[in-house]
Amino acid sequence: MKTILTENQLRDGVAAMSAEIAARYGTEPLTIVAVMTGSLVLLADLIRQLSMPVRVSLIQASSYRGGTESGSLWIRDDMMLDVKDRDVLVVDDIFDTGKTLEAVMECIAEMQPLSLSSAVLLHKKERQQVSLVPDFVAFNIPDEFVVGYGLDYQDLYRNLPFLAVLEPAEIEANTV
Ligand code: 5GP
Ligand code: MG
Ligand code: MG
């Protein structure tokens, strides 16, 4: 595999995005809704850089069924905290077409938060298919399938501390 963001680059990018989030919300309490499972590592690093009162809520969403092709979208919100009248920040791993984040934002908007914004680790700008724009982005990346720092290929590679592009042979090796 080919590393495209090192552990140090990820740390610096997440720190910079955390500073922007801290500047926006100040000392106001913030409810973070993390889109599982890809945002797990970002969530852990991000919340430890925020000093306002933070609540952590989880939502599960996926538009990808195992491989690298886009599939149907589903959302599971039974692990959500009550977000009515709260300032809510949705955190996800990557904004690709944007369909996943758009659906999650629509789902949470129905829960009547006081405010609603979004933060993503990665943005593949060329692939965008929705009008929604993420409020906070740590890195813009080219249109390549990436793994590591929470992002998977067939549920593997989330534990890599860096972000990498898989070689075709590595994709084939994991295809069941
Ligand atoms: P979207 O709905 O924006 O097209 O897709 C977003 C979701 O697809 C992400 O939350 C992520 O789970 C998955 N995804 C999109 N691009 C990539 C990628 O390059 N690598 C991995 N591992 N997942 C991706
Ligand atoms: Mg995801
Ligand atoms: Mg995935």
Summing up helix and strand content along with how strands pair, one would put the structural category as alpha/beta
Radius of gyration: 16 Å
- Can you tell me the CATH topology? Rossmann fold
The ordered string of helix (H) and strand (E) elements is EHEHEEEHEEEEH
Strand order of the largest sheet: 4-3-2-5-6-7
Number of continuous helical runs = 4
Tell me the total number of β-strands.
Answer: 9
Strand content: 25-35%
Q: Summarize the biggest pleated sheet.
A: 6 strands, mixed
Hetero ligands: guanosine-5'-monophosphate, magnesium ion
Mean pLDDT: 93
Q: What is the helix fraction of residues, given as a range?
A: 25-40%
Count of domain modules: 1
The CATH architecture would be 3-Layer(aba) Sandwich
**Terminal Cα separation, in Å?**
19 Å
Low-confidence blocks of residues: none
Shape: globular
Tell me the name of the CATH class. Answer: Alpha Beta
Describe this entry's structure for a reader.
- The protein has 176 residues and is of the alpha/beta class.
- It has one domain (7-142): Rossmann fold.
- It has 4 helices and 9 strands; from the N terminus they run E-H-E-H-E-E-E-H-E-E-E-E-H.
- The strands form 2 sheets. A 6-stranded mixed beta sheet has the order 4-3-2-5-6-7, sandwiched between helices. A 3-stranded antiparallel beta sheet has the order 1-9-8.
- Strand 5, helix 3 (99-109) and strand 6 (115-123) form a beta-alpha-beta unit.
- Helix 1 (7-25) crosses helix 2.
- The relative contact order is 0.20.
- It binds guanosine-5'-monophosphate and magnesium ion (MG) (2 copies).
- One magnesium ion (MG) binds next to strand 5.
- Residues 38, 64, 152 line the site of one magnesium ion (MG).
